[in-house]
Amino acid sequence: MKMKSGRKSILCFSTAALLFSVLAPLSAFADGTTVTSDTYNQSLSRTIALSNLVIFKEDSLYTDAYILQKSVKFSIGGLEFPFNANNYQRVSWTNDDKAPNVNNVLSAKVAPKTGTLHEAKTSERLERIKDKVNNNSYIYGWVLPAGQENWIKAGSVKITY
Fold it and tell me: What share of the chain is helix, strand, coil (3-state, %, to 5)?
């Protein structure tokens, strides 16, 4: 099959444009523009600063808590498996960075028998939480996997009311 010369030039131009669009960003680094670890960390810090969530780098679990009217909504997301009794015993939110105990638990949720979501949510009355957590303090999330005795940290979040 023969191509007309006009189509050949369009094809060559399109190929060259595609190649340039891929190589142009790479050539900026060859011209002496480099990304240092400081530049990368500043960029990463700005990205994380867009949210008040603190995500532990060693895993994908994260905790969130926010106020909606007269309630505090808690969630733990990024669970490796669906939140159900086959995979987890319960999740908990505490007012300090120590594993959940009778003195520091703000809220907890027992894993349901069935479930497909990779997150757990619950809520508490705002007044109850205000009694246990100061304004601008952190709330810590925890996960207790099925068949284990040790809690896993699921990040923290600063709460302001």
Answer: 25, 35, 40
